[in-house]
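Pipeline run #58 for the internal structure catalog. This entry was flagged by the ingest filter as a single-chain record with no existing model, so it goes straight to prediction. Upstream metadata was stripped on purpose; only the residue string is passed forward. Reviewer on rotation: M.T. Logging verbosity set to normal.
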Amino acid sequence: MKSERFLVITGLSGSGKTVVSRFLEDLGYYCIDNLPAKLIPSFVDLWRRKEVEIEKVALVIDIREAGFETEFLEVFHKIREKVSPQLIFLDASDDTLLKRFSESRRPHPLKTRKSIVESIQLERKRLAEVKRLADEVIDTTDTNITQLKERLNVRFLKKKVDKMQVRMVSFGYKYGVPLESDLLFDTRFLPNPFYVDKLRDKTGKDKSVKDHVLQDEETEKFLLRLKSFVDYLMPKFVKEGKSLLTISTGCTGGKHRSVIIAEELKEHLRSQGYSVRVYHRDLYK
């Protein structure tokens, strides 16, 4: 049985290998781009002996590597006896590849021919034997990024991703914005417990602070619209194939309002069936 823990991604230049690699990284694969074929057996031995702390691997290998044609097939036959890798070959029509190279204005890796068309045809010929060995061939001619991700989920990972891991982060603007944020919401316009003497030294985890903020009419209106907006966006991210979404809520110090809104949004998303973790970055600063 072919292993889903060890993938080899190859195919024609411009067929979508970079998109696949980034997608697999989001799914927890350790992706190595263009590892020389001669080094693959050594890496496989290290991985099998668990001398590298890597659970799942995806090697992206193609014609860019010198000696690919003469060395890859021999190496692949050797490692196939050890790890049973899945070989995934990406393909597309000549017209599609030509259009992609024209749009990106990047040269074809094979620079020995007079035109890109001739280079594409030469590469297709050189990779014919590799394609015949592939466990799966994906034709990306009429496939956009979202459709390609969906096909990868269904065909290779044997599952359909219909839920995302959501990471809620509360923070204080005075300490900087979380760079990993996909969505960021500013809560500094909400009533500030800092200016209430009995609440200043407490946090958004305390009931008295929560009541002070949540009972305000402005907060109620904001939460209603925020939840509606997030409900609209979540299926869009799921459809795109996103596996981790980071939502950040910020206030001045990251101790009161941002914490409360993050906790409220967490409960709402969990009620919708999403897996949500919360990190209050600046709660005790």
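catalog note: The two ends are 52 Å apart (CA to CA).
catalog note: The beta strands are 3-11, 30-33, 57-60, 85-91, 136-139, 165-172, 183-186, 244-251, 275-280.
status: ready for reviewer M.T.
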